[in-house]
Amino acid sequence: xxxxxxxxxxxALDRGVGTITLDRPHRLNSLxxxxxxxxxxxxxxxxxxxxxxALVITGAGNGFCSGGDRQDIIAQLFSRDMAGLLEFxxxxxxxxxxxxxxxxxxxxxxxxVAVGAGAVIALAADIRIVADDARFGFVFPKVGLSGADMGxxxxxxxxVGLGRASELLYSGDLIDAAEAYRxxxxxxxxxxxxxxxxxxxMALRMxxxxxxxxxxxxxxxxxxxxxxxxxxxxxxxxxxxxxxxxPDFREAYEALMEKRAPRFQGxxxxxxxx
Length: 274
What we know:
The protein is α/β, with parallel strands linked by helices. It has 2 domains: 9-206, Alpha-Beta Complex (2-enoyl-CoA Hydratase, Chain A, domain 1); 210-257. The chain has helices at 33-45, 70-77, 82-101, 117-124, 152-160, 162-171, 177-183, 195-208, 211-223, 229-244, 247-257; strands at residues 9-14, 17-22, 54-59, 106-110, 114-115, 127-131, 135-137, 174-176, 188-190. It starts with 8 loop residues before the first strand and ends in a 17-residue tail after the last helix.
């Protein structure tokens, strides 16, 4: 893929914020073989587009994402041998890896149901803004599958803790937005009409900030999960020294001294009309 013109979902760019909209509202934005592949390739492609400085993922209509499409995917899996099944599960995992590795803040605007793969996609985002009527469910056990799918058993304990993650991954039970907020899965719960505007406002704030430093923050959050304390402190020392050598560090200082807003490298001009 060489452009930012996807076929299986919508993408829009406004003032540095790229919005990915899963666009199958008649199927609660369920995923197909094609959308898994294209989404998984789309995030690495963004590294070639510095004009995209923050990302929002949302769903069209009343749902965020209901997981893999039962007709397009699940029914077809019964005809695959082990090699074919493993090929599919690796493709789904590659999407989550791509979301975690993209060097931009990613905000999930969870405007409705997020179950199965949809729940893991929201989990893979850095921040989740959730509608007050949304529901989450890691429902894999409900269809006879392991709750450990697409990286859920790695990511969920880091977000909500081991005990709560274990309960959700064993049971496959749905939880509402209030419970998601209580356990830390949702960063904010807002009325449904405010989900996308709230997520966009947060993403715009990040887009106006230091993109190089944000990329470093995301990289370190991911890398430090496997480090001991001493190793993490040394890694952060090196990362911060690199940021101090970047022009944005001086720009922030000069802006502070001059009592003006900083103009970080590559930041969009938010004074322009959309």
